[in-house]
Amino acid sequence: MAKLTDDLKEMPVSELTERLGNTREELFNMRFQLATGQLDNYRRVRLLRRDIARIKTVLREREQASESEGTIE
Question: How far apart are CA 64 and CA 19, in angstroms?
């Protein structure tokens, strides 16, 4: 997973937010399939949740980095 995290850290914010939206939408659809009994790969739900967490972590790290740059005295 280190490669995925490194790839995410290199992406611009616009791509990260787009990927976050797409992943959330896919997770929503997977949960719907899970509720209706149509889902075959249950593990994919877990992986999507982790991907969302990784993306949000990278976005938050960048947000904190930009905040700390602004408060340098």
Answer: 20
Give counts: helices (H), strands (E), the chain: 3, 0
Tokens of 58: 């990278």
Alpha carbon distance 63, 44 (integer Å): 29
pLDDT tens, position by position, 14-69: 999 999 999 999 999 999 999 999 999 999 999 999 999 999 999 999 999 988 87
For the chain, which domains are there? Answer: 2-70 (1.10.287.310)
How far are the Cα atoms of 26, 28, 40, 49 from residue 36, in angstroms, in the given order? 15, 13, 11, 19
Q: Supply angle C-alpha 13, 44, 49, rounded to 5.
A: 45
